[in-house]
């Protein structure tokens, strides 16, 4: 489908750009947590940040929970990032069709954005905590979809 300026952006392979976007999705909650903590973060000992937030008397319980959840959302993003980036490379190496690859890779990024928002702002509400889990599962399933697409492409290329 061509746009008004003659570019067919949907057929262009944009999947490699989704990896830096995914890194930003993982880094964003970390930056949010640090900036919300008002000088509690100590770059000399970054791993003590969550303990420092828990122990401080300068933040109320809601702020502490939000900051802690943001830090956890960031950690979760980095935990899945390697598998995602590897899937993008594998799918590109075997030549998965760009439209499929774009849909899956950018679907992952969208799921991470939704996950972050849900984790930080909705997970305190038990009736909405399911949404965070659904977004996490959606992200993992898109990664599996990328790997399966790559596997099917290779399998079909080597017909015995």
TrEMBL record:
InterPro entries: MAPEG-like_dom_sf (IPR023352), Membr-assoc_MAPEG (IPR001129). Keywords: Membrane, Transmembrane, Transmembrane helix. PANTHER family: BLR7753 PROTEIN, INNER MEMBRANE PROTEIN. Pfam families: MAPEG (PF01124). The chain crosses the membrane at residues 14-34, 138-159. This is Membrane protein. SUPFAM superfamilies: MAPEG domain-like. It comes from the Eukaryota. It is found in: Membrane.
């Amino acid at each position: 489908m061509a746009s008004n300026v003659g570019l067919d952006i949907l057929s262009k392979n944009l999947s490699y750009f989704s990896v830096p976007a995914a890194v930003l999705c993982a880094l964003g909650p970390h930056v949010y947590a640090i900036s919300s903590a008002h000088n509690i973060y100590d770059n000399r000992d970054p791993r003590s940040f969550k303990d420092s937030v828990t122990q401080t008397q300068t933040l109320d319980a809601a702020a502490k929970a939000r900051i802690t959840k943001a830090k956890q959302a960031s950690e979760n993003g980095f935990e899945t990032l390697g598998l995602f980036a590897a899937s993008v490379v594998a799918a590109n190496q075997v030549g998965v069709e760009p439209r499929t690859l774009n849909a899956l890779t950018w679907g992952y990024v969208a799921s991470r954005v939704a996950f972050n928002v849900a984790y930080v702002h909705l997970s305190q509400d038990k009736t909405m905590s399911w949404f965070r889990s659904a977004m996490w599962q959606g992200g993992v399933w898109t990664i599996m979809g990328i790997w399966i697409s790559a596997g099917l492409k290779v399998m079909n290329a080597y017909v015995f």
